[in-house]
Specification:
Length: 198
């Protein structure tokens, strides 16, 4: 019964449900990253910033993007699927990743909001929604994928370098990987300071 009610609500109010779920899953991804990182104290401000970016941009963008793709390329034929996948990966994915890095930096008040984007975008970008799910559920499904993606992005932005190898190393041994990353970051800053003095 509950499942039927939720399914009907998703059909009647798809925008509100999908966008809210998307923002919640983004925030959940950030919390998952923080818990995996064994932080002594959770940074709720960062989680809020991730949720704001998830709700205001990612949820809305994906909701309307999925519908636009379906209107322009209707159906599930191989040709239509290829077109949707190509457009999604060549346009939507880079845009969404860019907005995440710059949006969270902006909300944190960073002086250079493009710093994380410049350092991590290419690595992150290297890293079946159209066939299996009905249109009214696609954004919610993308939100579930976004939870995992947001966990990776939050890890990458706060601790990693944007590569899948670093994320995998972190999952296998979080404390050791974080310590190695901190040491590498310290060494880079010292090198920059040394070169800046010359």
């Amino acid at each position: 019964m509950r499942r039927l009610v939720l399914r009907e609500a998703a059909k009647r109010f798809p925008w509100l449900g999908n966008v809210t779920l998307y923002g919640g899953l983004f925030a959940g991804g950030d919390l998952a990253h923080q818990l995996l990182a064994h932080k002594e104290r959770l940074d709720w401000t960062h989680t809020r910033n991730v949720a704001v970016v998830g709700v205001t941009f990612h949820g809305n963008f994906n909701y309307f993007w999925m519908r636009a793709l379906e209107r322009r390329f209707p159906g599930k034929s191989a040709g239509m699927l290829f077109r949707k996948l190509l457009l999604d990966q060549s346009f939507a994915s880079p845009l969404a990743t860019s907005v995440f890095y710059t949006g969270v930096s902006f909300l944190e008040g960073k002086e250079d909001v493009l710093e994380d984007w410049r350092e991590k975008f290419v690595n992150t970008w290297k890293f079946l929604n159209f066939t299996l799910l009905p249109l009214h559920m696609r954004t919610a499904f993308m939100g579930c994928c976004a939870f995992l993606w947001a966990t990776f992005l939050c890890f990458s932005r706060q601790d990693g370098d944007g590569t899948a190898a670093m994320a995998l190393a972190f999952i296998m041994d979080p404390r050791k990987t974080l310590e190695e990353m901190r040491q590498a970051r310290l060494a880079r800053k010292q090198d920059q300071g040394t070169y800046g003095d010359k």
